[in-house]
């Protein structure tokens, strides 16, 4: 083979055939920059043998894996910090209010619940109609509230006056329950937003960096396997020939 097909390696300055390595101009920019970092005087026309190129390819793979792990760890720390920053404990609103109710509040809730039922309406209608029939027709000789039923109006006014604040008390507790529900929803939504943002960051990191890195790592692995195969082939070529076996072949011939 002529000397024109042999070149000196940039690293060890030994001569190699051109098919035993690559010129820097043919390398990936990231690997070429790594070589130039170690050999600032290197030019794109310089040659590097496969043995030393293998080291730089492995370094590139290792650097990409470490960068991905570092970025993933950074995102995980942000997620943990975001989740731990909100120290609000989600509570069971109904159970919390049930424990804090006083006797008067329980009574007001029961009165408001009964006052807003069909049972109360039916009883109220029966009482009103019975009152007016008994006093209007003087049934059984009873007429303690003659027409226009002034006493009935007074009773209805008293019932309304008592029932209104009781219902308002119950409504105030309903408003407290709604406020606590809203506060719970706010904190749950806030935590969910933090988680979703960081999960989006993870997905973006995976799509923009990790997947391309994995594809590049796979390409480098294929190139590394090719270099290893070439070195194994070269080692087989450099193995000493068994002269005894050659002599036996010559005698046989």
From TrEMBL:
Q: State if Transmembrane helix is listed as a keyword.
A: yes
Keywords in alphabetical order: Membrane, Transmembrane, Transmembrane helix
Query: Do you know which Pfam families this protein is assigned to?
Result: DUF1003
For this protein, the parts annotated as crossing the membrane are: 114-134, 146-170
| Key word Lipoprotein present | no
Q: Would you tell me the protein name for this molecule?
A: Cyclic nucleotide-binding protein
Gene source species: Levilactobacillus bambusae
């Amino acid at each position: 083979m002529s000397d024109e097909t042999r070149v000196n390696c940039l690293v060890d300055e030994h001569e190699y055939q051109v098919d035993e390595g690559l010129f820097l101009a043919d390398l990936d920019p990231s690997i070429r920059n790594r070589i130039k970092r170690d050999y600032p005087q290197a030019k794109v026309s310089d040659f590097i043998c496969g043995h030393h190129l293998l080291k730089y390819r492995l370094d590139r793979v290792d650097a990409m894996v470490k960068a991905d792990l570092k970025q993933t760890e950074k995102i995980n720390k942000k997620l943990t910090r975001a989740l731990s920053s909100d120290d609000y404990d989600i509570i069971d609103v109904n159970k919390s209010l049930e424990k804090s109710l006083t006797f008067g509040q329980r009574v007001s809730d029961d009165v408001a619940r009964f006052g807003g039922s069909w049972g109360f309406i039916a009883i109220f209608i029966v009482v009103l109609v019975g009152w007016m029939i008994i006093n209007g027709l003087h049934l059984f000789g009873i007429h303690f509230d003659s027409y226009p039923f002034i006493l009935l109006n007074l009773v209805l006014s008293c019932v309304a006056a008592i029932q209104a604040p009781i219902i308002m008390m119950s409504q105030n507790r309903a408003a407290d329950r709604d406020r606590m529900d809203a506060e719970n929803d706010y904190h749950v939504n806030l935590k969910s937003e933090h988680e979703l943002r960081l999960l989006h960051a993870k997905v973006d990191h995976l799509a923009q960096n990790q997947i391309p890195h994995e594809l590049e790592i796979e390409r480098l692995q294929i190139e590394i396997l090719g270099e290893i195969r070439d070195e194994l082939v070269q080692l087989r070529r450099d193995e000493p020939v068994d002269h005894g076996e050659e002599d036996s072949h010559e005698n046989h011939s």
